[in-house]
């Protein structure tokens, strides 16, 4: 499903992040963040490992019937906060080849955060604070997200966690602030940055990527960082 340069870049990125996360666990930042959520150190590391591994996995859910040209592999620079991941492509695709556009969900950026959020909501319920925080994060992410040619939808990496942390500090009750920060941050980013834009016909017409990945491409880092930073700051 991916070209060789993407696979090589993804493997390097994965191992660098794995080393970074291992150091963070040793220092205690990730441990503190997930301890606030009620997870143990081993559970936290497994969740983060699964999230990183799943960031390269897209599960197709819809074929749009639009024929899209495969973009050039020379994409935007990786050090730009809008463009943190190489664009997903199928193996042996030739540049300029027409492919049917596919909408998919990213395992690391959508499925795992959704499962974790469902678990946390089952423990604390749908509180007014949770609904309000999620709505505000959704609105902020919707306003900041932009279509990226050949990639999908992107959002500055630090916008979701910082907005989430501020909102959770102001509105969430202290006993549930970490859980509300995680759920509203991840779900608000998915809704505001990806899903609502995909449901907008005007935005859809500007999305020329072969694979539109919910929770992947330009929004994965925003969701990933939100899950850690928002909880630490809340």
Automatic annotation (TrEMBL):
Pfam families hit by this protein: DUF1614 (PF07758)
Keyword tRNA processing (UniProt): no
Transmembrane segments: 7-35, 41-62, 102-120, 126-145, 152-173, 179-199, 211-233
Keywords: Membrane, Transmembrane, Transmembrane helix
UniProt-recorded name of the protein: DUF1614 domain-containing protein
């Amino acid at each position: 499903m991916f070209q060789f340069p993407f696979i090589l870049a993804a493997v390097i990125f994965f191992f660098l992040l794995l080393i970074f996360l291992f150091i963070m666990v040793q220092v205690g930042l990730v441990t503190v963040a997930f301890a606030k959520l009620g997870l143990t150190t081993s559970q936290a590391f497994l969740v983060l490992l699964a999230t990183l591994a799943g960031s390269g996995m897209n599960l197709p859910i819809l074929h749009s019937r639009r024929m899209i040209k495969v973009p050039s592999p020379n994409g935007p620079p990786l050090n730009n906060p809008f463009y943190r991941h190489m664009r997903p492509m199928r193996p042996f695709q030739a540049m300029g080849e027409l492919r049917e556009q596919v909408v998919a969900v990213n395992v690391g950026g959508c499925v795992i955060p959704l499962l974790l959020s469902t678990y946390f909501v089952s423990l604390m319920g749908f509180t007014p604070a949770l609904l309000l925080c999620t709505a505000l994060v959704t609105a902020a992410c919707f306003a900041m997200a932009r279509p990226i040619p050949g990639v999908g939808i992107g959002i500055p990496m630090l916008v979701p966690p910082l907005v989430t942390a501020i909102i959770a500090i102001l509105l969430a009750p202290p006993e549930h602030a970490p859980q509300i920060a995680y759920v509203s941050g991840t779900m608000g980013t998915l809704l505001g940055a990806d899903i609502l834009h995909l449901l907008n016909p005007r935005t859809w017409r500007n999305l020329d990527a072969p694979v539109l990945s919910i929770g992947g491409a330009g929004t994965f880092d925003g969701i990933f960082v939100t899950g850690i930073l928002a909880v630490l700051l809340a």
